[in-house]
Design brief:
The chain is an alpha/beta fold. It has 13 helices and 15 strands. Helix 6 packs across helix 7. The longest helix has 30 residues. The radius of gyration is 22 Å and the shape is globular. The protein starts with a helix and ends in a 10-residue tail after the last helix.
Length: 386
């Protein structure tokens, strides 16, 4: 579609796409996909934005706020799903939402399909187009994952510090220590967005910090950001084992875009740690990055479990705990592509913005993202939109 035709379409108000925003139903998931300013922006190119009643309340956004921005408030999730051409969410649909799937529907959200074969199959069976925030890739970066990764990294240290306290089952260590008393030993596996954010908080709190990664350039960047405040190690099994066994707090942040996380922290390594130490697995959305957290996500209601005397924190929606901050950060990043899809339609959108094509994980009953196909046992079909 040419720019001229697009502008005419917008001026005449001939848009046909209806965007639906249901209330999130995952345990204590308080975020909502969109903020009032984004509603106004979307309505420049979309016909309607339907928002389920109360969807934004936990993020500090009232129904009246959405109405003032031009949204239509809908009483039930069922009606939002049934009346919408594209569902704009935060977290992956849960089983009770599968009944709303239908051919031709677009779902735009975090999907994490590599670790969720049941959801993958439901999307394929219903021929839903599943667009995953976490695999939209621009210049080898993940712009829709980044804001939540930054929040998760910051919170990983905050939560880890909490569970190191005795009342929460930990060994009773203050992260920053006090004069004459050593600070906590924090080990961060991965120097990407999550790892950098975690390092920033851990260093700021005065912990002793070690960061491991296989990318030497990433380790050099960490050293440049935090000179004389961190130790960096090349990530291999021996170095991981040596670092982990002496750690008070381990934060595992390993990410392979769209794929299951590798289990770099083995059970025997955990067994060597001191009782009351804490492991925070930020990669749990992608299946978990330790032997003991693999396929074992926790919730904000029950955030930890204990194995070998070690506290494991594996909450699959960490940023949901700080919903007001997270909602605005997420909407700022994701609304751009929601608007592009509404403006151009899916076919033209992925042609004009190839980074969006990488976000399409399922299309017309086929898996169109290679890592997802491999990890879920499906045939990979390159994306071709009719």
């Amino acid at each position: 579609m040419s720019k001229e035709k697009t502008e005419i379409k917008i001026r005449k108000g001939e848009n046909v796409m209806i965007i639906g925003v249901p209330k999130e139903i995952k345990d204590q998931e308080s975020r909502v996909a969109i903020v009032p300013g984004a509603v106004s922006d979307l309505l420049k190119v979309a016909d309607k934005v339907l928002i389920e009643k109360g969807a934004g309340v936990a993020s500090g956004i009232s129904d009246e706020d959405f109405i003032k921005a031009g949204a239509t408030i809908i009483d039930s999730a069922k009606e939002v799903w049934e009346k919408s051409d594209m569902i704009y969410k935060v977290k992956e649909p849960l089983e009770e939402e599968y009944k709303y799937f239908r051919e031709g529907l677009i779902i735009y959200t975090y999907l994490h399909l590599a670790s969720d074969e049941k959801l993958t199959q439901a999307l394929l069976d219903s021929k839903v187009t599943g667009i995953a925030f976490e695999t939209v890739e621009l210049h080898h970066k993940l712009p829709l994952l980044k804001p939540m990764s930054e929040i998760a990294g910051r919170m990983a240290v905050q939560e880890g510090a909490k569970f190191l306290t005795k009342p929460n089952g930990g060994k009773g260590i203050l992260l920053q220590g006090v004069p004459g008393v050593r600070p906590a030993n924090v080990v961060i596996v991965g120097a990407g967005t999550v790892g950098t954010a975690a390092t920033r908080i851990a260093v700021g709190m005065g912990a002793r910090v070690t960061v491991l990664d296989v990318n030497v350039d990433s380790l050099a960047r960490i050293q440049d950001l935090f000179p004389n405040a961190v130790e960096t190690l090349y990530s291999n099994p021996l170095n991981i084992e040596e670092a982990v066994k002496d750690a008070d707090l381990v934060i595992s942040t390993v990410l392979i875009p769209g794929a299951r996380a590798p289990q770099l922290i083995k059970e025997y390594m955990v067994e060597e740690m001191e009782e009351g130490s804490v492991i925070v697995d930020v990669a749990i959305d992608q299946g978990g990055s330790t032997d003991l957290t693999k396929g074992r996500p926790t919730t904000h209601t029950n955030p930890v479990f204990v194995e070998h005397g070690i506290i494991h924190y594996a909450v699959a929606n960490i940023p949901g705990a700080v919903a007001e901050s997270s909602t605005y950060a997420l909407s700022n990043a994701t609304t751009k592509y929601a608007k592009i899809i509404a403006q151009y339609g899916l076919k033209d959108a992925v042609e004009k913005f190839p980074e969006l094509a990488k976000g399409v994980n399922t299309y017309k009953g086929k898996v169109t993202y290679e890592s997802v196909a491999k990890d879920t046992g499906h045939e990979y079909t390159p994306l071709v939109i009719d």
